[in-house]
Amino acid sequence: MTNVSFDNILINFGFGLKEEKKEILKQNPEKLIFMDLTCFDPAEFYAEFPQLKGSFAALFCDEEKKIEVHLRDKNQAFLDKMKELGFITLETTIVSCGFIFPRTIVQIINEAYFALEEEVASKEDINRAMKFGVNYPKGPFEWSQGKEKFAMALLNELYQKTQDKRYLAASLLKKAAV
Amino acid sequence: MNLQRIVVIGAGTMGSGIAQWFAQKMCFVELVDNSSEQLQKALHSIHASWDKLVEKEKLSSCQVNQMKKLLEVKHLEQVSKSADLVIEAIIENLEIKKELFHKLDHYFSPQTIISSNTSSFPITLMSEAVSNERKSRFVGLHFFNPATMMKLVEVIKGEKTDSKLCQDLYAWFESKDKKPALCKDSPGFIVNRVARNFYGEPLRIVESDDENKMKEVDKILKEVGGFKMGPFELMDLIGIDVNYSVTCSVWDAYQKEARFAPHKLQKQMVDEKRFGRKSKRGFYKYD
Predict the structure, then answer these.
(1) CB contact (8 A) between residue A120 and residue B190
(2) Which numeric CATH code is attached to B5-190?
(3) What number is the ipTM of this complex?
(4) Where do you find CATH 1.10.1040.50 in chain B?
(5) Ranges of each domain in chain A
(6) Which one of B30, B72, B88, B154 is the catalytic residue?
(7) Using an 8 Å Cβ cutoff, are B185 and B135 in contact?
C-alpha cells in the first residue's frame, strides 16, 4: 500500500487486508482520509470511521486510469490531487461492496475461469468470443491478467457479506491468485 | 477446406444475415424458407443493404452485382443436394429442429456438413436426429447479430463431431476475416454463459427499480469499463423478456446454479410487460 499525504489529507492506495486498511484509519483519526476500497464494502468502513471521507476503486483500472470515486462530502483538494496523479475520477453515489465496475468484472472473470476449468474453450478463444461476439473492450483474461489476487479478495468479501454461492470462486481462479 | 456452396435454412434476421455474409465472401448461397413471402422480404432487404453499401462507396456496383447473382432464394426441395455446408437458422424449438435435421440428413450428400446456429440447444442432442455416418459432420456454428458485422462465430464441437472438421472450419472462417472461437458443447457455449453476469451483477447492485441508479451503473460501466453500452440500456435494446428467457434457460441447464440465477427485477419487468425499447418501457422510458 502507498499513502499520499498533503495538508490534512491522506490518500491510501493499493491492495491490503481489511485489518491493514482499518489500522491506517485508526492511526490517523485527525486526518481526512480517502482510501482505495476496491475489494471491500465502503459502507462498513464509513460506519466505523468518520474520518474516512471517501473511497475509490483503482485496483482494476488500466493505463487510462479511469476510476470510480464515492465521496461522503465533496472535497475538491482530493479530486485535484487525484487528477495531478493522473487519475480520471468518475463520481458515483452508489455505495456497493466492490463498487460497480470491479464487482461486475470479477463476476465475468470468475465465469470465464469456470468455463476454462470445464474446458469449454481456451483462454484465447474465450477472450476472442467476448470481444468479437459482444464487443467487450477486453477479454476476461486480459482484464484479470496480474489482478487475480484482487478478484479473489473481492469475491471472498462478497461471499462473506451475502453468503450467496454465486460469489464462490472457480478453482482455477483460486490457483491463479496464489 | 473449401466451402463454395452454402445452404442457409431460415430467412429470418439471423438466416438472412448469415446468407448475406457468405455471399459477400463470394460463396454461392441458397437461402431457404417455407414462406415465399419471407424469402422475398429477406432478398429485398439484403439487396437494399448492398445497394446502400454501394452508395456509401464501401462496395463497388460490380461487386454487388456479382453478390446478387450468388444469392438465390428457394424452397428446400429446389436446393442443390451437393452443398458443402448447410446452416440451420430456424425457430428455437428442439422438436422442429430435430425433424428438420432428419430431413436434411436424407436430402444432402454424405459429404455435406450440417450445422446449427442455435444459441440454446446442445449440438449433441440435436445430432440424435441424424444418422451415425453424419454425426461426425454435424457441428454448431453460432453467429452473432448482425452476422455481417459481428466477427465472432462459435464453432461448437458435439460429442461425435470430427475434431479435424472443427479445426478446418475454424481456419476457413479465420481466412474469411471472421474471428472464430472453438468451444465444447456446453450450455450457453462461451458468450451466452460468460456474459450473463454483465446483467446479473448490475441488477444486484441496484436491487430495485431505481432509474437513477441504473443510469449511474450504465455510465460507470461505459466510462470506466469501456463497454459500448451499459447493461440496463442493453437489456432494454435486446428485450428484457428475451434476456430473461436466456438467463432462465442457462440457469436451468446448469441445474439452478446460483451464479446464473435470474434477478427478481427481471421477472417483475416481464410481468409488467416492460420489455424495453420495443414496448416503450423497460428499465428506462422511451417516448
Answers:
(1) yes
(2) 3.40.50.720
(3) 0.96
(4) 195-279
(5) 2-91, 101-177
(6) B154
(7) no
